Amino acid sequence: MSITDAPVTAPVGGPSLRQERRLVTGLPGPRSRAVLDRKAAAVAAGVGHTVPIAAVAAGGGVVVDADGNSLIDLGSGIAVTTAGNANPRVVAAVTEQVARFTHTCFMVSPYESYVAVAEALNRLTPGDHEKRSALFNSGAEAVENAVKIARKHTGRQAVVAFDHAYHGRTNLTMALTAKNMPYKHGFGPFAGEVYRAPLSYPFHDRLTGPAAAARAITQIEKQVGAENVAAVVIEPIQGEGGFIVPADGFLNALVDWCRDNGVVFIADEVQTGFARTGRWFASEHFGIVPDLVVTAKGIADGLPLSAVTGRAEIMDAAHTGGLGGTYGGNPLACVAALAAIDTYEEDGLLERAAEIGALLTSRLTALQERDPRVGDVRGHGAMIAAEFVDPATGEPDGALTARVARACIAEGVIVLTCGTDGNVIRFLPPLTISDALLNEGLDVLESALAAA
Ligand SMILES: *Cc1c(COP(=O)(O)O)cnc(C)c1O
């Protein structure tokens, strides 16, 4: 019997997992390698992976692989397991629900948990106006539905997205997404009536928020025409695009322009939502009230769920039967969302996100003072990034960034990169991580940068 055939007892996940970085093999170890070999033979090549392991358990601030390696988790499966993997409240809620019923289709036989998620979203999203919500499966699906709703409400077709935007991988959301490789390359033709406007990117454009907004608005008015625009879609802080925090006043000016011109302002809070930035939603950092808010990722702590929430008169523009889907608002995902929301509220996780942000920011800005390759440190709460540049030219250094990220992973620290130039390392730890693990993860990053 080879080592990979020997039975292994996977540890139970959740916060009771030993909270430590522990490497017992190089990565991947033999058991993980066996799974990755089968992946190469069975799974389409287009589905890549960042960390060369086969995960068997996760919780608190660690991910454990099939060989018994324990990695520090600074990614949360891309900002999803915000309340911690295998969170006990989520596990209990899903376990109870799965034994009752797994699916009826909400459009056939409705159930209470879906309604309760809609009520929670209507309560928690910015603004105290009358709201409605609809539930879907993925972030991209929810963005598409927000655009459908805005078009129906306005009777207009054009949709404006921004430089560096990421909104998903379906046909319409590929059109909204800015970056060609890997998201769009060879996958066209893309959906029509999508237009791109310049963003506010203070580290590079040095523009004030109002100046950057005026630049974008002029371009929209000249190239599209305000009266043709159904919706402006924007991430309040861009995720895949590089954790770009717009200059103060940029989003506010866009919201005002939308109000004045009958355009629906859609905030894509798929990555920024649900306690991640130290507020329920990143829009709150800028004092804006979007017409529609799109959520997914952190909404249900890992179960697939997404939502569109917004002004009742806009949301109700779609005729009965016009919105939905077989699985949208699946009961397992809905009870997980309610348990995750309880956890954010009862465990003080918004405050914890702010603390994590303060720790990450102080360590990374100290590093920036010592090392000019760290060009910029930015973000809010547990959504912080460092942008790497060539100190001689100020140009993005994607190659350095990739080397540093690879070295961190090899040392048992899961980090993710982002940015149009791939020169940003982003930190998205679960809010259940300890300060000790966070600090150890940053120690590893500092050594990796020193060696790179
Ligand atoms: C991840 C993401 C999406 C797409 O969500 P999926 O669930 O992968 O379809 C959309 N918008 C933003 C801002 C995202 O980060």
Describe the structure.
38% of the residues lie in helices and 16% in strands. It has 452 residues and is an alpha/beta fold. The chain has two domains: 3-86 and 349-451, Aspartate Aminotransferase, domain 1 (Alpha-Beta Complex); 89-346, Type I PLP-dependent aspartate aminotransferase-like (Major domain) (Aspartate Aminotransferase, domain 2), CATH 3.40.640.10. The strands form three sheets. It has a seven-stranded mixed sheet, sandwiched between helices. Strands 1-2-3-13 form a four-stranded mixed sheet. The structure holds pyridoxal-5'-phosphate. Pyridoxal-5'-phosphate binds at residues 138-140, 143, 166-168, 235, 239-240, 268, 270-271, 296.
Category from helices, strands and their pairing: alpha/beta
Bound small molecules, which ones? pyridoxal-5'-phosphate
User: Helix content range of the residues, please?
Assistant: 25-40%
Output mean pLDDT: 97
Strand order of the largest sheet: 4-10-9-8-7-5-6
Topology as a string of helices (H) and strands (E): HEEEHHHEHEHEHHEHEHEEHHHEEHEEEH
Low-pLDDT parts are none
Structurally, the number of domains stands at 2
Outline: globular
| Count of runs of 4 or more consecutive helical residues | 15
Radius of gyration computed on alpha carbons: 22 Å
**Assigned CATH superfamily of the largest domain:** Type I PLP-dependent aspartate aminotransferase-like (Major domain)
What's the story with the biggest beta sheet? 7 strands, mixed
What CATH architecture of the largest domain would you give? 3-Layer(aba) Sandwich
GO biological process, one term: gamma-aminobutyric acid metabolic process
Enzyme class: transferase
EC number: 2.6.1.19, 2.6.1.22
Keywords: Aminotransferase, Pyridoxal phosphate, Transferase
